[in-house]
Fold this sequence. Notes:
This protein is mainly alpha-helical. It has a domain at 30-87. Helices cover 66% and strands 0% of the residues. It has helices at 3-22, 29-52, 57-86. It is flat, with a radius of gyration of 22 Å. The model has no long low-confidence stretch (mean pLDDT 84).
Amino acid sequence: MDGIALLTVLVLAGFAGYEVISKVSSTLHTPLMSGSNAISGIVLVGTVVVAGQATSPVLLAVALVAVALASINLVGGFVVTDRMLQMFRRPAAKAGGSGGSGSDGDGKEPAA
Length: 112
């Protein structure tokens, strides 16, 4: 494909992606983030495969930059998803003097 066709596909994919994501309800954003993290993981695997098959130092350098950027994207996605999930957690019970709650004060249930 020539450059104009590739640019056209990129622009159309961008518009289609924006329209699809903007129609997702707020309650589905967390599962959507999980799905995008899975896709980012697949992209990272692809960049590692490409880096392993590089035949010249320039291609290897570009592939290693791609691996680094894909890794940053994947880790950032998990950090953002974790922050979103923390918004839905119940507040931890305050450690009181009763001692009969079965909790050791750290907000976690005791191990069985």
